[in-house]
């Protein structure tokens, strides 16, 4: 969790104005806002989920945002990836998104990495974060992010969206992890991606909003509402369900820790 002792940084007048509607909130005071300012958050994947949740965190005042994505912007991305326009085609998503966030909020620091998160860079990058938001589009990255977050005890909020459905859950402290919930051998099917299965414009943006919302209440107020809970959102019935899950004593990821 973010602590205020070591890096105390007060909000200046411009920031107080910018975040005034948030600071006015019952239950959200200047201290909560300052915790956001001190927070380091890594966004894995700058696609439909990442570009939307990153923008919400930037607007809310999360102080240091790191974006990692190796992809460039394609025309089929524009249907749902709200940070990008036709003029951005061919450029790196992380670069374009970083520029956008910096324009939206000049008071925060944004760092873009135009590479894939893999075994060579994951530990170094994740170990320095207060929170990781995963919105990647493939299982191998999702398992890697989960494993490294568990190893380094960094909180993780993971969101996904396929078709009309979305999922969201949190790994924090000694909680069950993604691999406890979805053992690797059951999830060998890499083809479950938007690229193959299709996705409605709004689905990843709903899940990104929920993910960013959870990130804010966690960073500002220390609330881990989805710890050991899987949120399932259905975009046809508009039903949302919360399923509790337990730690798997045989989970290889949790064993290593
Ligand atoms: Zn586990």
UniProtKB/TrEMBL annotation:
InterPro entries noted in UniProt: ThiF/MoeB/HesA, ThiF_NAD_FAD-bd, Ubiquitin-activating_enz
The name this protein goes by in its record: THIF-type NAD/FAD binding fold domain-containing protein
Transmembrane segments: none
Domain of life: Bacteria
Domain THIF-type NAD/FAD binding fold: 19-253
Family: Belongs to the HesA/MoeB/ThiF family.
A Pfam family this chain is assigned to: ThiF
PANTHER family cross-referenced by the UniProt entry: ADENYLYLTRANSFERASE AND SULFURTRANSFERASE MOCS3, UBIQUITIN-ACTIVATING ENZYME E1
Species of origin: Acinetobacter indicus CIP 110367
GO terms of molecular function: nucleotidyltransferase activity; sulfotransferase activity; thiosulfate-cyanide sulfurtransferase activity; ubiquitin-like modifier activating enzyme activity
Gene Ontology CC: cytosol
